[in-house]
Amino acid sequence: MSAAVVTPYTVPAGLMDTLQVTVLVLVAAGAAAVVLTRRLVRQVLVLGAYGIMLAVLFLTFQAPDVTLSALTVGAVALPIIVLLAASKTRKKEE
Amino acid sequence: MRPALRRWVFLAGAAGLVAFYLWGLSGLPGFGNYPGPYGPAILRIAVAQTHATGVVSAVNFEYRGFDTVGEEFILFTAAAGTAIVLRMLRGERERPPADEARDRDVPPTSGAVRTVALMFTGPVVVAGWWLASHAQANPSGGFQGGVVLATAFILIYLAGEFLTFRRLSPTAIADAVEAAGAGGFAAIGLAAVCLGLPYLDNFLPLGQIPGAVSSSGTIALISFFVGLEVAAAFILIVSELLEQTLLIRHGGG
Amino acid sequence: MQVFPFIVVAWIAGVGLYGIVTSRNLIHQIVCLIVVQSSTYVLLLGVGYVTGAVAPYYYDVPVRTPAVDPVVQALALTDVVVEAAVTALLLSVAIQAHKRFGTLDPHELAEFKG
Fold first, then answer.
1. Share of chain B above pLDDT 90, in %
2. Which of B142, B157, B221, C16 is closest to A35 using CA atoms?
3. Minimal CA–CA distance to B93: which of B246, B250, B242?
4. How far, in Å, CA of C55 to CA of C91, rounded?
5. Domain range summary for chain A, segments of one domain joined by +
6. Where are the domains of chain B?
7. How far C105 CA sits from the closest chain A CA (Å)?
8. Does the pLDDT at position B197 exceed 80?
9. Which of B44, B48, B109, C39 shows the smallest number of beta carbons within 10 Å?
10. Are B229 and B147 in contact (CB under 8 A)?
């Protein structure tokens, strides 16, 4: 299964490796940041940034379909519903 | 269980889990050395068999179409479940959103946000529609197109026009569109059964050029229905949560 | 590089589980559950990757080009969208629990019976 065919999209293997390792490290750091943020509104924003980084990771794994899904869901839909739930429960406490 | 004790119990359990995980990892062929016969087998025959150049969508809606029917009904059930769980309980009433700002200073939506949000609503709808109907060619597909379509409606809410959002996407219409999407997908499968073929078989003409809009038979049609259903499900979910946040108040005050 | 993505998967899952176990707020717990679920997407895509291959779309490359595995991509794709809907269901249950009991702390909620 080695790539002997060269397409306009083929990148040198070392470059691709470096890119993937960098984005993996960023995603790991992002996951830790999401968990360690205790205030809800800040956590929602960090969740949005984590979703974008996850989408970039899927792009470097040669999966543009999953990138589109992860981008729209993880950076738009999920933060909105979490934010709405958080604001609903906070309002009752004051 | 006190928090410190809970933390130590968790770390002990996690250590055992990590040990098993690393033991299982040693049997994997390593990142990038994919050995399995399933992937290359599908890649070899997919374009010729379905005339769809987007192999992921072909897998989603044809080779593993039955899985996708199941996933779509998970989405349908989750939207229905949200509507049921967030029903109005005894002792709650719906209030117009103007009353809510009496004791709190709500800043009006800035002009820049309104302009940009309303300006982008049209292009986002077009982008979502394009994504939902081009599953067989590009990295598009019903699922991502549906979510992008739902985002267009959320943009209207973000522009500060909650009442317009509510008027443009009433629950009855969103319910009907969602049911049409889910039912349409199942109906296409049943139509294949009525013709004597297996469920969800690709019975429409496949078209000449792989990757053209009218090619690949039922894949394009199914992807469009899935897009409708996903968009309606997300609009329902967001409007339920918005009603809870902005409209429903406890007590008779 | 042979096993690094899978180590990152274990790290993300572990960090998310730690967040769920030590959280004092139901909604914070639900966001940590989202993180745990995202680790499975990375695992799926990491298993199907082929070094030096392109994405499985033959719109503009010749049909014989080696590509990554499309089946795991199809699984991850539907997973991502469905997860958001299930999260919405969990959040609505949390909202109703808050309305009924007045608190979002899982330790206090565990003491209520029925």
1. 10
2. C16
3. B250
4. 35
5. 13-93
6. 36-250
7. 12
8. no
9. B48
10. no
